[in-house]
Amino acid sequence: MEFIIGIQGADFVLTAADQNAARSIVRMKSDLDKNYELGKNLMMTVCGESGDTNNFAEYIAKNIQLYKMRNGYELTPHSGANYVRKTMADFLRSRTPYQVNLLLSGCDDEGRPALYHMDYLGAMVKVPFGSHGYGSFFSLSTLDRHWRSGMSRNEVMDLMKNVIAQVQKRFIVNLPSFSIRIVDKDGIHDMGSYTPDKISV
Fold it and tell me: Strands across the sheet with 187-194, in order?
């Protein structure tokens, strides 16, 4: 019952992730952060089995940090996405596959944003927008209709709020709050939690 979304703008990527930690019919937490910083301009937003997501994200974050320490520079979004995909594919072919779906967002030093959509089978594609979880059933049509290249921050934020409003209105499960992040050439910016006060469509 999770929902993560990423939208690429002119020179940034905006991501939102619901803050629920739930199992079966029980919500255990409503302040869970599903975003993991992999570098100055590289972030991974995950959903899936709670143990798998935490272990996989920490494994990736520590190994990318080790790469930076050994080589003296950080991975670009493209190389980071390929490393994560390769690692996911290797685990898939081992005795401990991870049930993790993720969005990897980043921005290079020249301000070119990148968003990668990856699933638990190791399939990866670079996309202008993407989502995982049950909320994606209600969001992809809205994103396909309203997204356009070169959108400003305010336009992307309005589109994201529209998508969340659709999910709040049509999805039977309540997702009360979302953590918002923006990744650009200056780094990762925490925009706080977004809690829709009312549904307006």
Answer: 129-133, 3-8, 13-18, 178-184, 187-194
Which residue has tokens 């930076």? Answer: 68
Instruction: Find out whether 134 and 2 touch, Cβ atoms under 8 Å.
Output: yes
- CA pair distance 102, 84, nearest whole angstrom: 10
Mean pLDDT of the 41-54 span: 93
pLDDT at 44 over 90: yes
Q: Answer for the pair 82, 160: CB distance below 8 angstroms, yes or no.
A: no
Q: 17 forms bridges with which residues in the sheet?
A: 4, 179
CA atoms within 13 A on the CB side of 177: 14
Cα 41 to Cα 166: distance, rounded to the nearest angstrom: 30
Per DSSP, 41 falls in state T
Q: What share of the chain is helix, strand, coil (3-state, %, to 5)?
A: 35, 35, 35
